[in-house]
Amino acid sequence: MSKVSLTVNGKLVTADVEDRTLLVHLLRDHLGLTGTHVGCDTSQCGCCVVHIDGRAVKSCTTLVGQVDGADITTIEGISKGDELHPMQAAFRDNHGLQCGYCTPGMIMSAIDIVHRYGGNLDEETVRHELEGNICRCTGYHNIVKSVLDAASRMNVAQAAE
Amino acid sequence: MYSTNYHRASSVDEAVALIAKGSDAKFLAGGHTLLPVMKQRLAAPGDLVDIAKIPALIGIEASGDTLTIKAATTYYDIMHNADVKRMIPAIAHLTSVLGDPAVRYRGTIGGSVATNDPAADYPAAILALNATVKTNKREIPADQFFKGLFMTALEDNEMITAISFPVPEKAGYAKMRNPASRFALTGVFVAKLKSGEIRAAATGASQDGVMRVPVIEDALKANWSASALDGIKVSDDGLIEDIHGTSDYRANLIKVMAQRAVQAAG
Questions:
Q1: Which residues of B touch A131 (CB under 8 A)?
Q2: How many residue contacts between A and B have a Cβ separation below 8 Å?
Q3: Where does the pLDDT of residue B46 fall: very low under 50, low under 70, confident under 90, or very high at 90 and above?
Q4: Does B179 score more than 90 pLDDT?
Q5: Which of B31, B76, B181 is facing A63, going by the closest CB pair?
Q6: What keywords are annotated for this sequence in UniProt (chain B) (predicted)?
Q7: How many domains does chain A have?
Q8: Element holding A5 (H helix, E strand)
Q9: B50 at A interface, C-beta within 8 A
Q10: Which pLDDT value is given to residue B138?
């Protein structure tokens, strides 16, 4: 057992957990943040993606010890109260989800993509960059539309700031 | 996964001491090979020593004709590094087609090389560029480092600290990816070194892991061009045969990927 301290969605969290605990299990089982999903056992599906110190990574392939002291953002931490994050709003408006299971990971990866590319995103780039997120409904077409729509909204929002 | 004890080391010496004292202990860097294997209970180290935040293991140094990438540098930082892109763009390209964006944020070159997965990408670059693997104990030439499937020359309590690449005259990498795992179904790295030596290494193809391909090297020595490989035949002896492809298919892929790598190298 080890004591770990980390910031999750802006709040300092301390937990006494076994060293083998994965970040996704800390989030879901200990903190009740069940928006982050586990979709595979092989680190391939991307349903568990969260931001660690601003980078979109797989929480199913990260031990809690590795993120001791880190700043974590999950799908629960991106909206401002009732106001959806532009990526969430774009997924809703473009029908970017079907069953919804992959959606939290898609959104967390997509925000990271927009942060990295800014206004230089095109369809091909989005499809390539989403290679680490699998949608079993195969609804990629509207997911890609959502990301492109959100990218323009996020850039407009950034320009206005 | 089975129970384990996690330690975070702050220096190479501390990490090596923790490994020596641990029970079936393993170094943990990005963890993107080790943790999935532990989740499947195929590995059960009693102690994990996290080396990912040791400052001496992170960074890229360019000096003269040598590019040195320290062991715990992530794929993301390698593919976006200006010196890598300028000095050996083939390594930046190789890194950009490795795993996926989330994996590239965490995976490290040292982890990939120490694991020596038979379908990993970096071993092909190291072997083809005749790089040197630096450890806490010694320097190991590429030709003496890879010892077969998941096997390397690394001894107990030995840690990779950096990889030094001689800057080649030309180099290229081409890879046929398994669309699901993104590992190389076959990848070939070709290099024309400044010494004039021509080297080609294939990954994902051989049952013994990364290997040099003399028939390609000989043909490129005579004529550095993709068309020089038109007439060659790569033997399928010892190549992997599985649900993804026959050994014969992989033998042909070695040739085709080598041609694409030469084209990429220019």
A1: 100-101, 182
A2: 77
A3: very high
A4: no
A5: B31
A6: FAD, Flavoprotein, Oxidoreductase
A7: 2
A8: strand A2-8
A9: yes
A10: 98
pLDDT value at residue A161: 61
- Chain A residue numbers touching B8 (CB-CB < 8 A): 65-66, 68
- B8 in contact with chain A, both atoms CB, cutoff 8 A: yes
Q: Which residues pair with B257 in a beta bridge?
A: none
Strand B60-63 relative to strand B66-70: parallel, antiparallel, unpaired? antiparallel
What b-and-e string marks burial along B145-175, b requiring 16 or more CB atoms within 10 Å of the CB? bbeeeeebebeeebbbbbbbbbbbebbbbbb
- For chain B, what is the mean pLDDT? 96
Q: What is the pLDDT of residue B97?
A: 94
The reply to whether A81 falls in a domain is no
A97/A137 same-domain check: yes
Interface test mutation site (partner B, options A18, A58, A117, max chain B beta carbons within 10 A): A58
Note whether A53 and A17 are same-domain residues: yes
Backbone dihedral angles phi then psi of residue A17, each to the nearest 5 degrees = -135, 160
Residues A107 and A59 in one domain: no
Q: Which pLDDT value is given to residue A41?
A: 83
Whether B183 has a pLDDT exceeding 90, the answer reads: no
Residue type, A146: S
| Positions in chain A whose pLDDT score sits under 50 | none
Q: Looking at residue B62, what DSSP letter applies?
A: E
Residue A111, amino acid = I
Tell me the nearest-neighbour CA distance from A61 into chain B, angstroms.
6
CA distance A111 to chain B (A): 12
The answer to whether the complex's ipTM is over 0.90 is: yes
- For each of the domains in chain B, give its residue range(s) and CATH number, in order of start: 5-50 (3.30.43.10), 55-166 (3.30.465.10), 170-265 (3.30.390.50)
